[in-house]
Amino acid sequence: MFPGSPSLVLKGTAFPANPQTGDLFFRTDLGFLCYYTGTAWLTVNEYSNSPQFATLSTNASTIGFPVRAVYTPHITRVEIATNIVAPNSASAYWTIVVRGGSLALASLTDFLTFDTSADAAGSYVDHSSAAPNPVEPTYHHTFLFSGTKTNLPGNANVKCTIFYRLVVP
């Protein structure tokens, strides 16, 4: 709430029919404080998955972590860093893909892709991204990342945390 303006936040079990961009609304049935972006209602709270750490040694090593799948996540940023054990170069590197996946991982939506070809081997390099495209993956039961080798780079040590708001229908 804002001082002197107690009526700025409406509440109820359904969003208003004609919201204005920036409107706040508390969904009493869900316990979510939401704001209207002009196209969707998003939670004010930003969520994150637990940080994921993995060492990738072979192609398509996939590390998955579940997300609250009842709502579509609106990804605000991805904090990801890699440390490639030597060798790593413009001709021997990893391509890392961060994506959303269906429950059975049969369907995937990529939302961040980068490679390590310009990274110095042996030290962590920040590949974090604000608002990757698309910010609302079609498949979102699980977030995951995977790596594909080009030629023969060393193992990839990857640290990843995904931050998101929920799209509330």
**Helix/strand/pairing class, anyone?**
mainly beta
Report the biggest beta sheet as strand number plus sense, adding barrel if it closes: 6 strands, antiparallel
Specify the oligomeric state. Answer: single chain
CATH topology of the largest domain: Jelly Rolls
Order of helices and strands: EEEEEEEEEEEEEE
* Unreliable stretches: 1-6
Any idea of the CATH class of the largest domain? Mainly Beta
In total, how many beta strands?
14
CATH homolog superfamily of the largest domain: Galactose-binding domain-like
How big a fraction of the residues is strand? over 45%
Average pLDDT value? 89
Helix content: under 10%
* CATH-defined architecture of the largest domain: Sandwich
Helical run tally: 0
Approximate shape: elongated
Question: Taking Cα atoms only, what radius of gyration do you get, to the nearest Å?
Answer: 19 Å
Total domains: 2
Span between termini: 23 Å
Q: Keywords, please?
A:
single chain; 169 residues; mainly beta; Jelly Rolls; 2 domains; 6-stranded antiparallel β-sheet; 4-stranded mixed β-sheet; 0% helix; 50% strand; elongated
Write the layout of secondary structure elements.
Elements lengths: L8 E4 L11 E4 L4 E5 L4 E3 L3 E2 L3 E5 L4 E6 L5 E13 L8 E9 L6 E8 L9 E2 L2 E2 L11 E9 L5 E12 L2
Parallel strand pairs: 1-2
Antiparallel strand pairs: 2-3, 3-4, 5-14, 6-14, 7-13, 8-11, 8-12, 8-14, 9-10, 9-13
Descriptive account of the structure:
The chain has 169 residues and is an all-beta fold. The protein folds into two domains: 9-43, no CATH class; 47-167, Sandwich (Jelly Rolls). It is 0% helix and 50% strand. The chain is built from no helices and 14 strands. Strands 5, 6, 8, 11, 12 and 14 form a six-stranded antiparallel beta sheet that branches. It has a four-stranded mixed beta sheet with strand order 1-2-3-4, with no helix packed on it. A four-stranded antiparallel beta sheet has the order 7-13-9-10, with no helix packed on it. Strand 2 and strand 3 form a beta hairpin.
